[in-house]
Design goal:
Four copies of one chain form a homotetramer. The first copy, chain A, starts with a strand and ends with a strand. The model of chain A has no long low-confidence stretch (mean pLDDT 95). The first copy, chain A, is of the alpha/beta class and 324 residues long. The longest helix of chain A is centred in the C-terminal third of the chain and has 20 residues. In chain A, a hairpin with a 4-residue loop joins strand 9 and strand 10. In chain A, helix 4 packs parallel to helix 5, helix 5 runs antiparallel to helix 11 and helix 8 crosses helix 11. Chains A and B meet through strand 7, strand 8, strand 9, strand 10 and strand 11 of A and strand 7, strand 8, strand 9, strand 10 and strand 11 of B. Strand 14 of chain B pairs antiparallel with strand 14 of chain D, so a sheet runs across the interface.
Chain lengths: 324, 324, 324, 324
């Protein structure tokens, strides 16, 4: 069988990460790269062998599958165009930066026969895959305490610009909302408080979530803090058991009534594996080859946008948001 | 001057801790001990030199100051009796296990000229005293993420009995409510979700708090988890700064936009100092000698009961509780 | 049966620790305490109920068993006197501060029918007891990397005075030599380098040890460093397995070729239990009641002095010391 | 100026790491790659754009500078050939796997006008660069305790084959010997014990080192252990100060007589920066462009081989090795 021809639209950091993973996958040919800044495209071309396209349209035309790795607010339009062209799409998160756009992408994806995968990489990261397995097979979680902070919204410069990110929660925190759905199921209700400090948008959130399963959780996410490791941590409380993650580095399970704990350290893995980038790209290619649905679907992408949207509404109205 | 004659009512673990601290303070004489279980009183008498009283009344009569270190639901009555007898009172937390009782204790304390101190030891623990100093002098906090778990409510047996503790939040979590008032000021509003798992009461809480200062916070507190250290942790987010505590053992401050952090480890201190027991007892004796108000007043005790009470109401009604 | 009458000679920190443990043991009566500084004896008397003796001789006379908890260089004479008086002896480490004296104590102890126990508490500390069990039952160790530092020799003042301690290695590091014998068996050879920096004696040591079992080990012990936790750490390398201790707080075992590790945290124990003081005192009383030999004998005490002595010789001569 | 044409001989893991770094350096053109296994060369070619050469000779001929990233025992011959061809050489460590070969490489490098750099990357890693700065500017070290373990010699398969690695110490531990020279100066004497367990060579070492400066150090390095993080750790003892590294992840400095410590976490850096690969490649290109000597010279490469050789001799003869 011929190799799958892949194009990458958006030659920034995350585009480069996917390019490196795909360059090592013998089932694909990294055919084309496009970026509005030609210099960036040239640079990725040099280190990956992909040819620089003159436009997104040209790239879509010549490829079988397209990675959309542009800044957030550009995802929706490209995702719809590519999907409507019948091509397979790997769309970085967030799929959209408002609910109406998310619905449009979802509609387009559902109307297509091609694969549509959203880049919620955490599901593939070994810490979270292991956590999911533990709470599925060994322990029923009853509550969770979740932190996802950034140190700053300064580097790179655009992460502090809501015109580009769609808002802080769309840039970073959305990962945790998808993660919580993955681990705990659908959200039933949400209350939130937020405040504005350093950046021209609400940049600090405290959130209380209730899930349909009865599990409840607290989440904090501040954009104005510091890089105190771990930036991202999930603590899950189960019967006589606590399970905690330390970013993508380790998962610690403490069971029983004494102080015994088991730590699985992922220290030896490459960053691509620790963060699940390798696994999500392999899964995407698998889905294409097996004509199977994506593991992270457009519906998943929609749902995570829905939670972000609810958070912003809860902060501005002071109301408890109920989910259908 | 004569030594202050001190009596201890309740010869359990925490009574023994105070006895050890007081035995080393030359300003006091540990005169009497009483416990409903005579054997326990005898044991504390042996290791402290205090004489066993035949009743609480006898003990109150013969002492200048009384430590009330019985189980929670016995605090109110003893606190009121002792205060009305004109004696100085060190009342372990919680001062009461419902709002009406808390009001009665507050009224009695305010009507007395003697010192009335509530055993919210965290304020004296070096981790929290240092944290308070940092956020007062160097950094303005904008949000906090707080965890206070127990591993179980099995050892000792009575901690799982709400008839004795007044409810899980009164036993353990109340410390964090007082601590948050100490650090962040008065609570303005509170929403909470709770659930019941292993024990005959709501034993798992997720709480969202708004403070009058504008600071917002999330708190989790589960009785059914495991002893994964730290059981108690406060993370405070400030401008380009994160400050975190690890139980009573260490405080970590990470400042700036790089990964630099300063850790103050309290590892070398004795448990009595790390947990603030030594300092709160010294402060109590200081207040008596200086005829000064207690550092942790009956009003503080009332306020922490008020937050616990609001938490229980928020869980049962689903409403957002507003504080005056 | 009558309670065992116990006396304590030396009312400093460690005397107080044993007094607290013994006060809770119903099999004994804490009868007497003596210290060359009367004030210190009075203070321990107040918090333990023991009567102050006017001399060591008076104390030895009236007790069945004596704890020798004076500064190091006073141990030998008191240990010999008490043993020759036919009394049970708990002698704090080091039993002596030179080899000749150690031999005299050993001879006296072996000539007596009473129990003679040396205060090498580490053997009873759960971290080391667990480590011993692991390498006995599950894993054969082939090498070890051991650290035991002090932050300073300033507090208390006398720890920096070799006239009182017998030398830095006798004060602190001797614990690790006994521990290594406990874990790895007899030492076969030893090479060492040392240097002098802050204190009027060799205050920094690097040691290479070969054991009769074939195991080899490195040890460092500096008196001029800082209180960077853990001060004391043993790392043992076995087939596809590493076991590490963190002071008396935790033991971590990592097995297999992945990053999995099991941590047993002793965080919940009291200091007396974590450090093995409770257990060594119980064992001493057990030995007296059961007319059984001590678990840590005068011969063990001698052997640890022998290793310290070899270390000092190795540093001063530059030679490899062979043990018989 | 024309770009420097660079070739890579040896397309394994470390060759790929350098290729990625060099692909992003605009001053160079990654021209050629060669590997005895053509498939590996093709794979690196795909992800880097370099052309596959048919032989090492062809590659050397067409390039200005050559990276020698083959297995250890192939370094010497290629290093000499390339140097004699007048080309700049970046030779991965170890430069040779015996002293005679190291001398030959040193002679060839010293006879050449081109740059010759040895791949002792640790010197460029921020943890060690920071440690070096601290002990140069702020604190005089008096001893060190060093650990460098591998979990196993199984993955990849060849690391357990001394025919390929030259021996375990040449593969991994040699980094620490170079590091110690970098930090502490020249070695004066060395004693070592070793043993053989899982692999067909001495696979576990305990080493005692004396430096010309008077500093002394202990080092352990076991091939048969487990992946207990940190695998690599340096602890340096200075006056009232301890400085410790945690692999390439963090450096902790604890100063003074209290428990205060400052941690610089490198968590946010890419692996290429954390491990110093990026910086050593930049430095190599800098040296070429500035006609400046390499920062890590052939003499440094020789000296680290000399320490490894001394270690093996010390273990087999039982003698203390004196360095000139």
């Amino acid at each position: 069988m011929d190799k799958i021809k892949i194009g990458i639209i958006g030659a920034g950091y995350i585009g480069g990460v996917h390019a490196q993973v795909l360059a090592r996958d013998e089932r694909v040919h990294l055919s084309a790269v496009y970026d509005v800044m030609d210099e960036r495209a040239q640079c990725l071309s040099r280190s990956s062998g992909a040819i620089v396209s003159r436009s997104a349209e040209e790239l879509i035309e010549k490829c079988d599958a397209v990675y959309i790795t542009t800044p957030n607010t550009k995802h929706t339009e490209l995702a719809i165009t590519t999907t409507k062209a019948g091509k397979h799409v790997f769309c970085e998160k967030p799929m959209a930066t408002n609910l109406a756009d998310a619905q449009k992408v979802l509609d387009a994806a559902e109307a297509s026969n091609a694969v549509f995968q959203v880049g919620h990489n955490r599901r593939f990261a070994p810490v979270y895959a292991t956590l999911k397995q533990m709470i599925s097979e060994e322990a029923t979680p009853h509550s969770a305490h979740v932190k996802m902070n950034r140190g700053e919204l300064i580097n790179p410069e655009w992460v502090g610009d809501p015109q580009i990110t769609g808002g802080f929660l769309y840039e970073t925190t959305i990962h945790m909302f998808d993660m919580m759905r993955f681990l705990f199921g659908e959200v039933a209700q949400l209350t939130a408080l937020g405040s504005t400090h350093e950046y021209p948008e609400t940049d600090d959130f405290s959130v209380l979530l209730g899930f349909k399963s009865g599990l409840h959780a607290t989440l904090c996410s501040s954009a104005d803090a510091s890089w105190l490791f771990p930036f991202e941590r999930v603590e899950v409380f189960c019967h006589h058991r606590t399970i905690a993650t330390r970013e993508m580095e380790a998962i610690i399970s403490s069971e029983g009534m004494e102080g015994k704990q088991v730590t699985i350290s992922l220290h030896q893995l490459s960053k691509e594996e620790k963060w699940g980038y390798l696994q999500e790209d392999v899964a995407f290619i698998d889905s294409i080859l097996n004509k199977a649905p994506a593991i992270v679907t457009a519906l998943d992408g929609y749902k995570s946008v829905e939670i972000v949207d609810a958070c912003y509404r809860a902060v501005s109205t002071g109301e408890r948001i109920q989910f259908r």
